[in-house]
Amino acid sequence: MHRPRFRPHLRPRPEPASGRAAAVPVELSTVRPEAPPGRRGTVHVPFFTAAVVSVLTVGASWGVLILWRIGFGERFTGVSVHEINAHGYAQITGWVGLFIMGFGYQAFPRLWRTALAGPRLVPAVLAATLSGLVMAVTGMGAAGYRAEGAWAVAAALAGNALVLAASLVFAAQLLVTYLRSGDPMRPVTAFIGSALFWFVAQAVFGLWHTWMTMTAADRADLLWYIATYQAPLRDMQIHGMALLMVLGLSSHLLPQMFGVPRTPERRARTALLLINAGVVIEVAVFIAYRWADDHRLAALLMPPWLMIAGGVAAMALPWRLWRRLPRNDHRSGKFVRAAYGWLALSLVMLLLMPVYQLVSGLAFSHAYYGAIRHAITVGFVSMMIMGVAARVAPALRGIHSGTPGSLTGPFVLINVGCALRVSLQILTDWHPFFFAVVGVSGLLELAALVWWGTGLLRILHGPSAPGPGVSRPVVLRPV
After folding, report:
1. Which alpha helices (DSSP H) does 330-438 contain, by range?
2. At what angle do helices 45-54 and 383-397 cross, to 10 degrees?
3. What 3-state DSSP class applies to 91?
């Protein structure tokens, strides 16, 4: 007769005499270190809520509108760059940034088995981020619609400054929290720290970039700033902040959630070095190429791209996500596996950019470059947010992890929409007909996010379970 294995309640233990962290599981949904009662277990809720509202309004919805206007105009440069930047700012700060903040406040102190430093600052960080987001998007968006007056510039700059201040406080809180913990510098912490560096760095660079573009003397001046600094800013945001954060958390969570093998520590540190160095070099080389106006320097972008791709491969290949997961979870597992497939595709497309330019005869393709960015932002980053949140949010509420349902509908819609966007956008280089249908991809992605997002909001604000043990907890294990 089969007897269920007894699993005692696990609690944090004191540090061993050697100073290394003991391999003690820390349940994300149950451990409550020193923090104001009732605050610690729900600190992520307003951040996750604001992120969903942001992506469903000024994020994906506005993006769909912009995409249709591009389709009707049959050119990707037919929409004001200020409007494009406002939409991008909403996606980076409102969608990705707020999820990083919410998850960071909720999970990282537990990871380091300590209490969050300065917990009373959390509402101020949230308020500053939301206020800054609204001000920046309003100012940049108004400039995109050719609003007259200095108020649009002032609003955009003040909004960027508020978000930068909030980012600095958030990063400082986590730094102090880690230093107080005495936890050793494990790879997951190194990835988190690197991502937080880029989190702040891109906010600083973004403030400067907004100032220079919105105060450009004329259109030629504006186009020069966009052509020179827009790509490095996106590299810092996507390859630096988002990629490093997701890879680091994946290395820690995926073995626990799905039973995949862990990435060896030395290999993880090598991957971290490669990706960080790759981002620094690609940013520096691109700016140098634009300053020198020498296309031969653009060839030097291939080594940092290879470094980033090699770092991702070193980190992710041990997980063998192309195989069936040892502990499969059909709700979140399919999102994670598909997300890493999109990441691989985006990196392959990036490495093949010179080949595409040669075949197409184009010196630079806005369509191909945008398709690469869409594959990694929507296909990888957004799908990882969807998959991990679907697993974490129910556990933090103490309800069954199957509450969101199978999520097959949103999964199919987001993948089909992303595939259509990437392929149709590239095809616009070859025939203008594809401009007329590329907008359909945005509608499918928006439908997926609405379906998934409304379900997540019901979990975040619905009733908690009456007792523990209803769902398998998400665990952060110091190793």
Report:
1. 333-351, 353-360, 366-374, 383-397, 408-427
2. 150
3. helix
Instruction: Check: CB of residue 351 under 8 Å from CB of residue 305.
Output: yes
pLDDT tens figures, 165-203: 999 999 999 999 999 999 999 999 999 999 999 999 999
What gap in Å lies between CA 456 and CA 407, rounded to an integer?
11
Residue 27 backbone dihedrals phi, psi, to 5 degrees: -75, 125
Cβ partners under 8 Å of residue 296, min gap 6 = none
> What pTM was estimated for this model as a whole?
0.87
The pLDDT tens digits for 321-346 are: 999 989 877 788 999 999 999 999 99
pLDDT band at 144 (very low <50, low <70, confident <90, very high): low
Q: How many CB atoms lie within 10 A of CB 293?
A: 7
d(CA 462, CA 399): 10
Query: Is 232 in a helix, a strand, or coil?
Result: helix
Residue appearing with tokens 């409102």: 94
- Give me the helices (H) in 77-121, please: 81-89, 98-111
Residue ranges of the alpha helices (H) in 428-476? Answer: 439-461
Please list the residues that pair with 475 across neighbouring strands.
27
Give the C-alpha separation, 37 to 18, whole Å.
33
Angle at 143 between CA 127 and CA 426, to 5 degrees: 95
Smallest CA-to-CA distance from 29 within 391, 382, 332 is with: 391
Give the β-pairing of 26-27 and 475-476. antiparallel
CA–CA dist 147, 144 (Å, integer): 7
Answer whether 142's CB lies under 8 Å from 84's CB. Answer: no
H/E run at residue 301: none
The CB-side HSE value for 246 (13 A sphere, CA atoms) comes to 29
What tokens does 10 get? 């696990």
Q: Could you tell me which residues come within 8 angstroms of residue 364 by beta carbon, excluding any fewer than 6 positions away? A: 357
Nearest 5°: the CA angle 290, 291, 295 is 45
Q: Give the pair of three-digit tokens for residue 186.
A: 């494990």
Spatial separation of the C-alpha atoms in residues 359 and 343, rounded to whole Å: 24
Question: 10 Å Cβ neighbour count for 123?
Answer: 12
The letter for the amino acid at 429 is D
Helical H runs in 182-264? 187-214, 219-235, 243-258
For residues 227 and 292, the answer to whether their CB atoms sit within 8 Å is no
What is the C-alpha end-to-end distance of the chain, expressed in Å? 34
- Under 8 Å between Cβ of 138 and 84: no
Q: What pLDDT shows up at residue 2?
A: 43
User: CB-based contacts of 352: which residues, under 8 Å, 6+ apart?
Assistant: none
8 A C-beta contact, residue 273 and residue 314: no
**Residue 397 one-letter amino acid:** R
Alpha carbons 132 and 124: distance in angstroms, whole number: 12
> In the structure encoding, which two tokens stand for residue 251, read together?
């290395």
